[in-house]
Write a structure and sequence with these properties.
The chain is mainly alpha-helical and about 180 residues long. About 80% of the residues lie in helices and about 0% in strands. Helix 1 packs parallel to helix 5. The longest helix has about 40 residues.
Length: about 180
């Protein structure tokens, strides 16, 4: 059961990371084609894929753990329930939740659910920060590789072509 959940976390985390990276690439490509070309863009997108993959895997792991916490609702004894799930017992120990016989299961469940919710929020915010950093890096790369030299070349070529053409300006065809 644990191996299946581990494989599921990795699979869903990687899939979500691929979707996040593809969406980031699509947004940048829609805004500026120069921003997704070159080595800086490749490094930024690969870094986003790896970093968001790690965060998304941790998020899906927390979602699986939250499912285990929901299963605690069916039990009546907190100490016996946590002994069935060693991973939750470890988390409860880190949160200083003592699973003694008189501790109500609802208290343990609420504390674990709250901790997992804040953990998921932190991971999602880290993923968002990685996306923003990638967008900034791609915009910088597009600006650095981009527009000025390309505009200068096309302008100078158009100026050169117009100097070589002896027709009046209103008879010349503009190149696009």
């Amino acid at each position: 059961m644990i191996i299946g959940n581990l494989i599921g976390c990795i699979f869903w985390g990687a899939l979500i990371a691929i979707v996040v990276t593809a969406a980031t690439y699509g947004i940048c490509r829609a805004l500026s084609r120069q921003s997704v070309q070159g080595p800086v863009a490749a490094v930024a997108l690969i870094a986003l894929l790896v970093l968001s993959g790690a965060q998304c895997t941790m998020i899906t792991g927390a979602v699986y753990a939250r499912d285990y916490v929901e299963q605690l609702a069916e039990a009546t004894d907190a100490a016996a329930s946590l002994s069935q799930y060693p991973q939750l017992a470890s988390l409860a120990k880190k949160l200083h939740i003592e699973a003694v016989a008189d501790t109500s299961i609802s208290y343990v469940r609420e504390e674990l659910t709250s901790a997992l919710g804040s953990y998921i929020t932190r991971r999602a915010l880290w993923t968002l920060a990685f996306v923003v950093a990638t967008l900034v890096a791609l915009a910088w790369a597009g600006r650095k590789s981009g527009g000025y030299a390309r505009t200068t070349r096309s302008t100078s070529r158009h100026r050169h072509d117009s100097l070589m053409d002896d027709r009046p300006a209103h008879h010349r065809r503009r190149r696009h």
